[in-house]
């Protein structure tokens, strides 16, 4: 569980000149600082290849905070804790220099030997850095040592195992914080609370009352500058293996006996173990892949994926995935969990729709519609909140029903700025709470699930790519996946809180 005390710690960011550090890590650290969550006993060492000075890093941190937040009170005080060391991740000399600086700052800021190593770098360096941290003595410290690792954690189960073996030589499982930034999102964290703190939902949260669950995570952006990475990954590895499956686990897990890291993780692991493996010929029945063609977004023409910079003109990489997952246990037998995620879709939205079963018979006369099913919609981003779709009596003489919606908007209730996921995750890591990070067992089981699908896809070229136009909700086959079962994707824009 999270310690309430403000920790003292040295935070070492590998890749401090990169995009993630600039857009997410520096602003998040600043927020924590302003909220008093960092205290005064902290220091940050940024490392990367560029020969920056301490001053140059400080200027960049200031700039990133200003760009992201628009204001920067106490910024000079904040950046006075930042130091820079040019570094080559493969070079032992570099680590020895880094250790000297770390030991000096440890003394200067009374950090008690506490160290967080944040690897905000390309994944091929993760193993090398972890090994050097051990062999060159940086993690030989009397305080806590924690390794924060960005995604992707491997490319498949085999590579993930190799990476895990490398980092485990230097850190115990409890010291490894594998980032899945979806787990830091306010409404993803809210899934457990909605389920386990409301008498209303948990008794209905099973195959007797729920007909299906739909999770959509759609982006409007295309591949942007990430083509080199994305070409080797695709939507299945980039989104499904981690974020989508993590949301499934939180929706499907049994109530933990207490809210401890181990108990929650072990319930999530049981969900992954109950996931029906989809392999061989079954893949085409359960999974659909797509790749965007050209189209229009906000009235502007956008190119097809195959015409994007650094993309193979004959690329077989999927930019869209839809799938039907079955969880073969008592609670969920027979309830499909539909997931879909993709780039260049109609709207940017992450939403979960829990569709309840129809009531046994309709007693009410409705001129224009059947009785609508009850829905619970969890808005993850950009809107944050929940909506409950019910039926009520239409005003007037007749006993006619009309759909009504009860909304809770997290953003309007708690102020416009719910903390950014990275802020929460950094805060958790500083306080030693690994609940919202992926345990190795979860990573291994989810790769095992995804590998069986990618094997089939890699061996069979999709001849119909591109198969959806930019600005749409994916290929037709994605709609047919639900139609076969008598369902349809609830249109995500109609479900927006603003439309209610
Ligand atoms: P980036 O390319 O912008 O930055 C990479 C950093 O690594 C730079 O600071 C660079 O100087 C440093 N570097 C590269 N080679 C080096 C070497 N040999 N020695 C020392 N330093 C070296 O990458 P990024 O977008 O910041 O992403 C970093 C990690 O975070 C990746 O694993 C990525 O998948 C993950 N990630 C990024 C984002 C994002 O929004 N940018 C989101 C989720 C996950």
Automatic annotation (TrEMBL):
SUPFAM superfamilies tied to this protein: Glyceraldehyde-3-phosphate dehydrogenase-like, C-terminal domain, NAD(P)-binding Rossmann-fold domains
Is the keyword 4Fe-4S in the record? no
List, in alphabetical order, the Gene Ontology terms for molecular function in this entry: glucose-6-phosphate dehydrogenase activity; NADP binding
Which keywords has UniProt assigned to this entry? Answer: Carbohydrate metabolism, Glucose metabolism, NADP, Oxidoreductase
GO BP annotations, alphabetical order: glucose metabolic process; pentose-phosphate shunt, oxidative branch
Keyword Flavoprotein tagged: no
Name used for this protein in its record: Glucose-6-phosphate 1-dehydrogenase
This chain's source organism reads: Heyndrickxia camelliae
Write the gene name.
zwf
